[in-house]
Amino acid sequence: MPSTELTFLALIAVAVWFWIDTLRAREAGIAAVRQACQAAGLQLLDDTVATASLRVGRQDNGHVAFRRVYAFEYSDTGNNRRSGSVTLLGQRVVLMSISPEQVELV
Fold first, then answer.
1. Sheet strands side by side (includes 92-98)
2. Distances (CA, A) of 46 to 30, 35, 77, 97, 99
3. d(CA 27, CA 78)
4. How far is Cα 46 from Cα 74, in angstroms, rounded to an integer?
5. Can you tell me whether residue 87 is helix, strand or coil?
6. Which residues, including other chains, have CB under 8 Å from residue 55's CB and lie 6 or more apart?
């Protein structure tokens, strides 16, 4: 096989891995937000999160991982929309911000 084909296959494999990793992180973020909203008596609006930023970071053990910040909206009265965010390092939630409180989960 020519090196061009191998390079192309490697790029496809990396893209598929990144896509699957992103889906897993997003699901972990949604689950954490649902649990936090339920515990605080809040309503998670749209039942989803949206990517706000993506960076590279280091985990506690020194390994490199993606640091993803997801934004979401919730309501405390049912008649309003408030913004919050959840930060994941790899698949682990490290910070959740629900205005005006900010809860650190390190």
1. 43-58, 64-75, 82-89, 92-98, 101-104
2. 11, 15, 15, 17, 18
3. 24
4. 8
5. strand
6. 66, 67
Amino acid at 48: T
Tokens of 70: 């997801």
Q: What are the φ and ψ backbone dihedral angles of 76, each rounded to 5 degrees? A: -100, -20
Report the pLDDT value the prediction gives residue 2, as an integer from 0 to 100.
Answer: 84
Q: What is the reported pLDDT for 63? A: 93
Quote the CA–CA distance of 73 and 46 in Å, as a whole number: 8
Beta bridge partners of 86: 70, 96
pTM: 0.85
Cα atoms in the Cβ-side hemisphere of radius 13 Å centred on 100: 0
Nearest-angstrom CA–CA distance, 6 and 56: 26
